[in-house]
Amino acid sequence: MRLDGRLVPGDDLPHRLAERLRGRDLSAAPAALNLVENRAPEWRAAINALLNGVSPAALGGEAPAHVVGITGPPGAGKSTLLSQLVRTWRARERSVAVLAVDPSSRRSGGALLGDRARIAVDPADDRVFVRSMAAGGRLGGLAPATRAAAHALAAAFDVVVIETVGVGQSETDVADAADTVAVVVQPGAGDVLQFLKSGIMEIPDVLVVTKADLGAVALSARRDLHAALRSLGAGETPVLAVSSLQPATGVGELADAIDDHRARVEIGARRLRARRAGALADFTVEHGERGLRALGGRRAADRLLEMQDEALDVPALTRALEAAAR
Ligand SMILES: Nc1nc2c(ncn2[C@@H]2O[C@H](COP(=O)(O)OP(=O)(O)OP(=O)(O)O)[C@@H](O)[C@H]2O)c(=O)[nH]1
Ligand SMILES: [Mg+2]
To answer: pTM of the predicted model, to two decimals?
Structure first.
């Protein structure tokens, strides 16, 4: 069913890929990514088949991975930190997939964007997978392909990271898609502090101050953020200072804090929220504001999603919204 070695609609590849992912075969990752990045309408059925094959119903429960969102202002040090975090996770014997969202391109470019990630990993290590993906429409927004990729890879990998650039409201997307969100800031970046204080930004699960090697300025940023969180009644939110340059410091503690959050969070509820948010986002990409109006607005759409069977996957939830909008 392939022409020139390429997948054509109707191929049973989606089912075979889902089966391999369910069996935690990491070598299925590149093909799964290629599939979800096909956004032409004739591919929708194939992508849905893949997602259905890794849904909680097919897996007999939630996907095993810890889905971690890493977000923060441009240049904060996210990718450099991720190189260190990946190394730490690998030392703990965890397989890791990183989806680095490229804000500069809205076009799905696959391998063309591959070098933006700037995440240094051991090329010989076949238990690490790094991929750049095109962004959604807004700064910090996730494209449908990124959500689908995270869903698919979460069946196979131990850790799935989504790295996005964003501050303020724009990091809500990644908060909706991840089990744990770490917001990364560099010392002296006052905007995140202001966003937190003014409530523009949701309180992250973990806050990270990078470039701790700069010394006093990093420590005072950490103090200010901690004080702001305390005044918001979120004093228990961990604020960690890390340096990603050699010798790296604080990275093990950060990995521990991310693990602690996962141990505390109600994973079923968080994943359900992610599926509903993903369906609404996919619906909005496809049908725009007009589609939302046909549903009676965002609130009405949320209520409709809450009425659906909790085990439904994202494509099934999206179809429910489409049926209601007709
Ligand atoms: N001094 C110091 N510099 C750092 C550290 N981590 C990153 N940097 C530097 O900060 C700059 C930005 O780092 P990146 O990791 O690319 O930052 P990013 O947040 O991924 O950037 P974007 O993806 O473009 O938003 C680079 O020049 C890094 O070398 C650190 O711990 N200490
Ligand atoms: Mg980066």
So the answer is: 0.92
